[in-house]
Design brief:
221 residues, Rossmann fold, VWF_A, vWFA_dom_sf, alpha/beta, 6 helices
């Protein structure tokens, strides 16, 4: 069976406390429902939730969403540090892919939704990001910037799609729901296979626009 590892990596810094964290925690059950109730998608998708600030915590290890009743809540505190988030994500992906392949599955290139509302406070996070995207199973990263996030940083983090919030009335949770629905449609449409060497994967045909967000050109450096 072909499996798509799907990671939500969400900023949990102190500036997220309030409406943003609340909106994300309300969105998690809807993301759960969006993926787990479609038999085709639930069969192919595994989900992981990572929250980060000064450190990064794996709040929900990679799981079949149809096997759980609820997802853990995001919290807030600390500074906006990116490096540990990318290192934790890389460790997760490497371990998850090894486990899935050991179970006899083929693995699509992982997809990451990365959401931040601030500017990184840690020096050297770019190296951790480089190691992540250049790894054998380096993920496709869709980055969302909200609040005081820096568009240049968001475009550097993303390697597939980058967005900045333009309309504060549209919550990041709504944007993620839009993309979860789009990702679901993409998986349903996909009938491609993945080569034995782990390269490639299905064509991720997600939407190029999100209501309330502007598209940011990717940093190609």
């Amino acid at each position: 069976m072909q499996i798509l590892p799907f990671y939500l990596v969400c900023d949990e810094s102190g500036s997220m406390i309030g409406p943003n964290i609340d909106a994300m925690n309300k969105a998690l059950p809807e993301l759960h429902q969006e993926i787990s109730t479609n038999p085709t998608v639930a069969d192919k998708t595994r989900f992981c939730l990572i929250g980060f600030s000064d450190d990064a915590k794996v709040l929900q290890p990679l799981v079949d969403l149809s096997d759980i009743d609820s997802l853990p809540a995001l919290a807030g505190g600390g500074l906006t540090a990116y490096g540990e988030a990318f290192r934790a994500l890389l460790r997760c992906i490497e371990g998850d892919v090894t486990t899935l392949k050991g179970q006899g599955h083929e693995v699509y290139r992982p997809v990451v939704f990365f959401l931040s509302d601030g500017i990184p406070t840690d020096a050297g996070w770019e190296q951790a990001h480089k190691e992540l995207v250049q790894a054998r199973y380096g993920p496709k990263i869709i980055a969302f910037g909200i609040g005081e996030a820096d568009p240049g940083t968001i475009s550097q983090v993303a390697n597939f799609r980058a967005f900045m919030q333009q309309d504060a009335s549209v919550s990041p949770a709504q944007a993620l729901r839009e993309f979860a629905a789009s990702l679901t449609r993409s998986i349903v449409r996909s009938a491609s296979s993945i080569p034995a060497d782990g390269s490639g994967g299905f064509a991720l045909a997600v939407d190029e626009t999100v209501p309330g967000f502007s598209t940011v050109s990717l940093d190609k450096l």
